Amino acid sequence: MSLQPSIHSCFQDAVLYPKLFKLQDNLYAASFFLMKLLPAKFILDNARKEGKIRPGSTIAETTSGTFGLALAMLCNHYGYKCILVSDPVLDPLLKNRIESLGAVVDIVAEPSKVGGYQRARLDRLNEHLDKHKDSFWPMQYENHNNPSSYALLAEYFATALGKIDCLIGTVGSGGSMCGTSLFLRKVNPDMQAIGVDTINSILFGQPDGKRLVRGLGNSIMPAILDHTIFDEVHWLSAEETFAATRNIHKQHGLFVGATGGAAYKVAKHWADRHPKLTTVFICADEGYRYLDNVFDDNWVDAQNLNLNRAFPEPLITSSPLKEMKQWTMMDWGRRTLQEVIQANRSNVEVMA
Questions:
Q1: How is 65-91 classified by DSSP, letter by letter?
Q2: Starting from the edge strand earliest in sequence, which strands make up the sheet with 315-316, in order?
Q3: Cβ contact 118:220 at 8 Å
Q4: Average pLDDT, whole number, for the chain?
Q5: What number of other Cβ atoms are within 10 A of residue 302's Cβ?
Q6: Contact 289, 257 (CB under 8 A)
């Protein structure tokens, strides 16, 4: 084994791409330090090239997760000011980490009467944008540079693994799965793309509701989410997601976040049933943010969760509108959300 050490000029470049782990003959984990660095860097680099920002400019965004951390890291490195608007759901440890990088974190204390915290955060963000004239809003849910950035990841996968038959990942903004799948299908048009969501997320038609899992799911529909990318969609409960996150750590030593655990559960199931096909799943971050929740027995007990209640097979549904309580999957068939909803309504009318 020959060592080929790399020397990087900055930390972000050293961790921009994931490490690849072979978990079984046909199953690979793509484990990121912080996946959101990839779109955040791509968006800011393009904004700089287009003359929209320069050193000293203010980058302002609404976020409660790792996209905010990625922006704070990059702004610190490139000399931009950073203002992040969030709400009380923001992890205090993550807030401390972001602020230690020099970013300002503005917590909206009360939800709006219409639109809840999402509306209140957007209103506060617009106040900051109006106040700071030399400002830029990355708009991760609407900026098509988000999915475009994942052409780099697709090239990385193709170079390392060759033909990929199935890509599996969780969906929050839709950027990673839509962008990576789009570019991988230029090499293999038949590649399966499987999206993993959480129950009570509106992204694939579930009614909005309380969610415990961070990093996937949403209460608003991102403009960049292209539903026609997906062949299958799986919904997991918090219990199943957290149990899988612990399992991948116990069985393979991979210390990943809850989104990685959710993707692993679905990918393991698919790979076992397609032993001759190469399966890759995405782990978007490491497990350190989850030490005081997912990996904490006291926190799990306080949420009345039973992580031993595992389901080896998903329930099959023909409608995303149905109430779900456990792992459920649907043959999405690369359709729009509207097509899926309309097909469900037509089936109900026929049955009536």
A1: SHHHHHHHHHHHHHT-EEEEEE-TTS-
A2: 19-24, 27-31, 279-283, 166-170, 192-198, 232-236, 328-331, 315-316
A3: yes
A4: 94
A5: 10
A6: yes
3-state secondary structure of 173: coil
Contact 277, 166 (CB under 8 A): yes
Q: Between the CA of residue 130 and those of 19, 55, 123, 223, what are the distances in Å? A: 41, 19, 11, 23
Q: Which DSSP helix (H) or strand (E) runs through 281?
A: strand 279-283
Domains 11-31+150-343 and 37-136 belong to one CATH topology:
yes
Residue-wise DSSP of 88-148: TTS-HHHHHHHHHTT-EEEE--S-BTTTHHHHHHHHHHHHHHHH-SSEE---TTT-THHHH
Report how far apart, in Å, the C-alpha atoms of 75 and of each of 20, 53, 142, 144, 165 are. 28, 11, 20, 20, 37
Are the CB atoms for 180 and 284 separated by under 8 Å? no
The two tokens of residue 147 are 């999915």
Provide the β-strand partners of residue 27: 24, 279
56, 81 contact by CB (below 8 A): yes
Query: Residue ranges per domain, the chain?
Result: 11-31+150-343, 37-136
pLDDT at 13: 87
| Greater pLDDT, 115 or 340 | 340
pLDDT at 187: 94
Q: Residues 227-276: pLDDT tens digits? A: 999 999 999 999 999 999 999 999 999 999 999 999 999 999 999 999 99
pLDDT of residue 301: 97
Q: Which CATH entry fits the domain spanning 11-31+150-343: 3.40.50.1100, 3.40.640.10, 3.20.20.140, 3.30.930.10?
A: 3.40.50.1100
The answer to whether the Cα torsion of 76, 77, 80, 83 is positive or negative is negative
Determine the CATH number of domain 37-136.
3.40.50.1100
